[in-house]
Design a protein that fits this description.
Layout: E1 2-10, E2 16-21, E3 29-33, E4 38-46, E5 52-58, H1 65-79, E6 88-92, E7 98-99, H2 106-112, H3 117-136, E8 139-149, E9 155-156, H4 159-162, H5 167-170, E10 180-188, E11 193-199, H6 217-230, E12 242-246, E13 253-254, E14 259-262, E15 284-287, H7 293-314, E16 317-318, E17 323-331, E18 336-338, E19 344-346, E20 352-353, E21 359-360, E22 363-364, H8 378-388, H9 393-399, E23 404-406, E24 421-429, E25 432-436, E26 440-441, H10 443-459, E27 466-470, E28 479-480, H11 483-486, H12 491-494, H13 502-518, E29 559-561, E30 566-568, E31 572-578, H14 583-588, E32 595-601, E33 606-612, E34 618-624, E35 630-637, E36 645-658, E37 664-672, E38 676-679
Parallel strand pairs: 5-6, 11-12, 25-27, 26-28, 30-38
Antiparallel strand pairs: 1-4, 1-8, 2-3, 2-7, 3-34, 4-5, 8-10, 8-16, 9-13, 10-11, 14-15, 17-24, 18-19, 20-23, 21-22, 24-25, 29-31, 31-35, 32-33, 32-36, 34-35, 36-37, 36-38
Length: 681
């Protein structure tokens, strides 16, 4: 028995003009909303409340160091020493369709146009609020664990790298991806359902880099389905049951199960360099199982949901035993690793290789970079030397065979480009150990880490531990491949920033944490060097918010393009309004709802909200025009099972009004479509 609390809070932030974080594509900026982003928090404590652990899964690309340090600062002010760096795990689902701009290291400034306060604040506040809600809801409860196999939902996107691992090791596994889902179910002592956490290794990149709608991708859709089922009669984002689908060792795992094809010729480009005969690497893209990216998101999310639901219903193995956690800060650019009694190696100052710029089959890079580059390119090296400085010989030698594109560990202006100080952390709830890793471990890296940690527990008197990896926690350090995968320098290897021995270093560190937990010596672990928190200028290339304007003889919320009078189920109702910049709303209210679909109830002569902007079936598009004008188009993809009747669509926004040269205010407004009838098929 444990004390258990769950909480969920909105962390969407601004849905327009902010670069989306994930594909590093500068053209991919927000232009509306498909699904809201949430932070989901779970607090588990011993019954005597001596020790507790917080696990948060947030619908964001990854947790940044700045984000984590700011959240911990807020928790300290609120709760004193109750929630600390050692017992709070913050994990990102790794959606590639959430707003960026919440990083302090310079490399991430470049792709997300600087530090974007409204974006950072939305995520900080959402995470803290979800923890607050979980904290207030703590009650006696029970935790069950279950695991099972998910089929048809992933492929290895760097199979040629995977094949570099020793055959003797590969032969122990039936697949080149981890197909196992691990699921925790939480109920209170009366059997009332509280929530679940599922861990599964797949990239949430069913939505590709042409998407401009903020959303939580396949993992978020799985959460949405589970929460909609358990919070019956509630709108999306409402209700007490919380279902988190969290990331794991997804480094080389894609949901785009049809595999890579040349978008110009249709032939396969499943080769070591992922290149097409015509157009090279930029033409090689992986396709999901669906007919478009929305459909693929739905299919993969549905697969995850169906398996989690089956595991949830059948979960009978109860988790028992004490709660504990261990954490250290480590300078990852300088770790000595003992491979064996005679052989010592070291990690390196961070650097990215040429193939980093190639991107992956899930999102190709720019220019003519290809994956698997073990030679530099004189043209790009020369440009780099001129702009950013040449890597030192020491760094070049340390990273071999990686040809260095950006020697980020030697670039310090205006702030360091990459972290040196990294969190390593394990939390144990009874027989379950959660390894919180600061990046994206590949399939085989994750297997080696889990195995090493399990062996460490075994040999120190804690046998039969369930070990699970939680991905993208605490600080982002890109990828972690095995030493063998590193040698062929595909994207994941080029992005293993601390060099070829990164994985060995992490295994050594996490074994140390496991040993400390098992031998009850956590208090003797050195804390390690504290990470810096840079005071950041709000330097950003995001356009300034200016006054919104309407076309002549129109007001905000006027309908420009009306709905049709009648629709059938499975058709799309669409209406366009005179709009205003959605960023005004995000800066006014964190949980602003942009739209509702309402059904007329004749018995009470009133309108009842049936969908909101967090619904999978609604899409909110914002189109910027000239001179402060903009339009909003709302689509409702009328789902199977919609009750026939009379409906309308409403839009809620804020426009910025210039009162004087220095003073603007945000004014709320709304617009309503004509009523329309929905008929059954």
């Amino acid at each position: 028995n444990y004390l258990v609390g769950v909480g969920r809070a909105d962390c969407t932030g601004p849905v327009a003009e902010i670069p989306l974080m994930g594909y590093a594509n500068p053209d991919q900026v927000g232009g509306g909303l498909l699904m809201r982003l949430y932070s989901r928090a779970f607090i588990m404590a011993d019954l005597d409340d001596a020790k507790r652990v917080v696990f948060v899964s947030a619908d964001i690309g990854m947790v940044s160091q700045k984000l984590r340090l700011e959240v911990l600062k807020k928790l300290k002010i609120k709760y004193g020493d109750l929630y600390r760096q050692d017992n709070v795990i913050l994990s990102g689902t790794h959606t590639h369709s959430g707003p960026g701009g919440y990083f302090q290291y310079t490399l991430f400034w470049i792709t997300s146009k600087g530090l974007i306060r409204p974006s950072l604040n939305a995520v900080i506040n959402g995470i803290v609020k979800s923890i607050d809600i979980a904290h207030q809801n703590m009650k006696r409860g029970r935790i069950f664990i279950n695991r099972g196999t998910v089929e048809n939902s992933q492929i290895n996107r760097s199979p040629f790298s995977y094949l570099e691992n020793p055959a003797s090791e590969r032969n122990r596994y039936s697949s080149d991806t981890d197909k196992e889902m691990v699921m925790l179910k939480m109920v209170d002592r009366n059997g009332q359902e509280l929530g679940l956490i599922s861990w599964f290794a797949v990239h949430p990149v069913s939505m590709n880099n042409t998407n401009h709608l903020v959303n939580s991708d396949n993992m978020g859709y799985a959460s949405y389905l589970f929460e909609q089922e358990k919070n019956k009669g509630m709108l999306p984002g409402e209700g007490p049951f919380v279902a988190a689908f969290a990331s794991s060792n997804l480094g080389d795992v894609s949901p785009n199960t049809k595999g890579p094809f040349c978008i110009n010729t249709g032939e396969s480009c499943n080769n070591p360099q992922s290149i097409c005969p015509i157009g090279g690497a930029t033409m090689c893209m992986a396709m999901g199982p669906g007919e478009d990216m929305f459909d693929s998101t739905r299919i993969i999310g549905q697969n995850l949901y169906v398996k989690a639901r089956e595991l949830y219903e059948k979960a009978s193995q109860e988790v028992t035993g004490p709660v504990s956690s261990a954490h250290q800060w480590v300078n990852m650019s300088d770790v000595s690793v003992e491979l064996n009694s005679t052989h010592k190696v070291k990690t390196c100052k961070p650097a990215l290789g040429h193939s980093f710029a190639a991107g992956t089959i899930d999102g190709v890079g720019a220019f003519n970079f290809t994956q698997g580059a073990v030679e530099g390119d004189p043209f790009w090296d020369e440009i780099r030397d001129q702009l950013l400085g040449e890597p030192s010989n020491e760094t070049k030698a340390c990273h071999k065979p990686k040809p260095i594109l950006f020697s980020t560990g030697e670039m310090t202006r205006p702030h360091p480009w990459h972290p040196d100080i990294v969190d390593v952390q394990i939390a144990a709830i009874g027989s379950l150990a959660i390894i919180a890793v600061p990046g994206e471990f590949t399939t085989m890296s994750g297997r080696r880490l889990r195995e090493a940690v399990k062996r460490e527990f075994d040999s120190n008197g804690m046998p039969r531990m369930d070990v699970v990896i939680a991905g993208l926690c605490n600080v982002y350090t890109h990828y972690i491949t095995t030493y063998e995968e590193y040698q062929v320098q595909r994207y994941e290897a080029a992005s293993t920033i601390y060099g070829p021995h990164t994985l060995s270093a992490y295994i050594q560190l996490y074994r140390g944490l496991a040993r400390a937990i098992a031998t009850n010596t956590v208090q003797d672990l050195p804390r390690g060097p504290e990470p810096p928190l840079f005071s950041m200028s709000n330097l950003t290339l995001v356009p300034l918010l200016t006054a919104d304007r309407t076309p002549v003889n129109r007001t905000f919320g006027d309908v420009l393009q009306e709905v049709r009078p009648q629709y059938q189920v499975r058709e799309v109702a669409e209406v366009t309004f005179v709009g205003a910049n959605p960023r005004n709303s995000a800066e006014n209210a964190t949980e602003h709802n942009f739209l509702t679909v309402e059904r007329y109830d004749s018995a009470s002569d009133s309108w009842k909200v049936v969908q909101n902007d967090a619904s999978w079936d609604t899409r909110f598009y914002w189109t910027k025009g000239l001179l402060g004008r903009s339009n909003v188009t709302i689509e409702w993809h009328i789902p199977h099972g919609t009750e026939p009747g009379i409906y309308r669509i409403r839009y809620f926004g804020h426009y910025k009004k210039q009162l004087s040269i220095s003073h603007t205010v945000s004014v709320p407004f709304e617009g309503t479509s004509s009523r329309f009838e929905v008929t059954a098929l």
